[in-house]
Write a structure and sequence with these properties.
This protein has about 290 residues and is of the alpha+beta class. About 25% of the residues lie in helices and about 45% in strands. The chain has 4 helices and 17 strands.
Length: about 290
């Protein structure tokens, strides 16, 4: 009787386990997917245009483990880079008051006047070079009581350095004037847009490369239009208008509900299988006596 009862329970739990497993297989064919009306479907190095600006997708990859796996095949968080060039991006720089700068390959000191809204460049004289060019004076200066003097070779007459030096050249610019600003890429024509006691602000417009990282469901604004990203697989990113975000959230909820129910069926199948094995094992336990 013990073995008959165990066999009956074994068959009962085995049927439940197999039935749950079979139902999982049927349910998988009905798994909900996120299907959206995308503005663009991109792979690596493919492009699309918004408001006259061309955007390029690149570096589509799995950024890390975890997450719910929505749209990315499960088990991680998808990401990608989206890059574009702003052909007329605003740049600014500051000419600091009393700092030195290069103008026409010469060194000048910057002097700003907020009251007059002017920037004056005063030539920085190279004393050593000027001394070497004048054969009538020695190449080194004399110092007395903290002051420097030029020494004439003929009779050792000393003249204060300030009196001997030539008048430095100056260049004056006003607000609105064009100013040739030195950048890492060369000379850039800029406009003086503001002058204060601390310095002058320069402004110019030039191309600028931009890159933004896309993530699953992450918002991005392109040319003043709002979008979000969705990864239907590991090689594709969809750019979807923000007006479809509610629809996207609804479909994610449906996926979560399906996953929750499927996990429940897996639990039934596994536990029933274990119970069936236990019942069969117990049938062959030795009897007392």
């Amino acid at each position: 009787m013990q073995r008959r009862a165990a066999a009956a329970y074994f068959a009962f739990f085995l049927v439940i386990s197999v039935a749950a497993y079979a139902y999982i297989g049927v349910a998988e064919s009905q798994r909900p997917h996120v299907t959206l009306d995308a503005s663009a479907e991109l792979t690596n190095e493919s492009t699309f245009t918004v408001g006259g600006t061309t955007y390029t997708a690149s570096n589509i990859h799995m950024a890390g483990g975890g997450g719910g796996g929505h749209g990315g095949g499960g088990g991680g968080s998808m990401a990608a880079d989206l890059s574009w060039t702003n052909e007329s991006s605003r740049y600014t720089a500051t000419l600091e008051h009393n700092a030195t700068t290069t103008y026409q390959n010469e060194s000048y000191r910057v002097l700003t006047d907020a009251n007059e809204s002017t920037v004056t460049l005063r030539e920085e004289l190279n004393v050593s070079a000027l001394l070497a060019q004048d054969s009538a004076v020695k190449n080194t200066l004399a110092t007395q009581n903290g002051s420097q003097y030029v020494v004439y070779r003929s009779n050792n007459t000393q003249v204060p350095l300030e009196e001997w030096l030539p008048e430095p050249a100056t260049r004056t610019f006003s607000t609105g004037d064009t100013y040739p600003h030195q950048t890492d890429s060369g000379t850039q024509e800029t406009a003086i847009v503001n002058v204060s006691e601390s310095g002058a602000t320069l402004e110019w417009f030039a191309p600028r490369d931009n890159t933004v990282e896309l993530s699953e469901g992450g918002n991005v604004t392109l040319n003043d239009q709002r979008f979000f990203a969705h990864f239907p697989d590991h090689h594709t990113v969809e750019i979807v208008s923000a007006q479809h975000y509610g629809e996207y959230q609804t479909q994610l909820s449906e996926q979560d509900y399906f996953k929750e129910r499927t996990n429940g069926l897996w639990g039934v199948s596994i536990l029933s299988g274990i119970a069936a094995v236990l019942m069969l094992s117990m049938a062959y336990l030795p009897n007392r006596g």
